Amino acid sequence: MSHETVALAITGAILLGTVVFALYSVRRIKMDPTQYIVGGRSFGTLFLWILLAGEVYTSFTFLGAAGWAYGKGAPAFYILAYGTIGYIISYFYLPEVCRIGKEKHLLTSPDFFQARYGSKVLTTGVAVLQFLLIIPYVTLQLTGVQIVLSIAGYGHYDATVAVAAAFALIVIFTFTAGLHGAAWASIVKDALVLGAVIFAGVVLPLHFFGSFGTLFDRVLAASPHWLTLSAGSTPLGMNWFISTVLLTSIGFYMGPHSIAAVYSARDGDTIRRNAIFLPFYQIVLLLVFLAGFTALVVTPGLKGAAADQSFLLVVQRYYPAWVLGIIGGAGCLAALLPASAQLLGASSVFAKNVLGEVRWTRAFVIVIAAGAFVMWLFWNKTLVDLLLLYYNGVTQFTPAFIFGIYWKRASAWAIGSGIAAGEIVAFYLWHHSIQIWGVNPGFLALLVNLAVCVTVVWAEGASACATLA
Amino acid sequence: MRAALALLSPIMLTVAVPFANRVEPRVFGFPFLLVWIVVWVAAAPLFLYGVYRLEPRREP
Question: What pTM was computed for the model?
């Protein structure tokens, strides 16, 4: 058998096996909307941990983290920092979101806006924005699958058909099994990804260099400034690092799929325990950096997006096909499971909050997936650019949740104007590629958002006093 | 106390990073900046567990 047959057969068997396992596990669950969208609000600490690790750590956490270590160096370390701070922030407000979700039977992120602010316009606007922001993320996962499958095929065939097949499998799976299915499949995904990452981050460097110290010596010998950040306002310098860590950690849970996971928790304490234990999973990313640095020394010269393929190419070149097949399976699951959760989030938001018909959620999983696939085929390049908007865009929703819980005076008008201002600034800076002092544009947008929100609350207070007087 | 425990890692991973931005001293061969970040990431669960234990007792 040829290399690519072995590798692709193993990758395919892993995908199929995972789907069958998950479908078997959920066979007795009757899929009403609460079961389907938020897992019946029944997930305990361990199961929620598995689901969150399953949907937070996508193929681009891994390919991208290695690619950044390979192509950019120290700026990659932001990925390690932001998740950790994201969990710490979540410890304080997500248990409340979970409690309110349970009390008021919320299913989607915009539902929270309806319950707290009582404005149909605000809720629908937020729903449309969330939908538009999440779709490029789904299509990005397809690019992840494409990278993995074309490397597992040793570049001997066009991966588009295989991507279509893998995506179709996951879409049917999502249609059938909902959030329960995603959580069960995450068990396989988390375990495989952990194994693959330990291989890539420990076995690879020790094989080539004998010790991590030698690996870093080699990296530093080639480029002495690779492992430190550049000064202040330079591109990807210190200002960028700090503002990006703050922005992305504040927006960490703002994807509609993540809020669904929060509702799926049994109670607030489940969320707190998860916030405590999830940073341990972050350490895995250190190993991914090591894999990226190893690839940089072993196969230098990959440019731009090709850097994302770096450590897979090392595995392809130096290891047997079955190793590549297993790592390929882990890589595909790392792309497809988050895609499944994101599809579920997108379709529930669209069906429930834009159309007002929650029972259409399942059908929309298929419709949205088909749309995402077509977009991916024709506008791949544009979508990668749009993805830069994702974090900048979704983070603008965070004040609505935090103020919604802790600040009584925050009103629909204040939150709505804040979000609108934040999104406009984020879009404007992105569209014109403007950077100010090297600060992440999404962070500036968040500051504008907060300023507008607070000003409107203050103005409302002033006018209310004036009316009373 | 709880706020201080919760804020320690985020501060060390953001505004304190400029002070840790160097290669030397190496720790087990790892560059200092990376060690700094990994240490505060790894410490975060311990601090957060401290916060959890210090929570005022909730009714069962």
Answer: 0.91
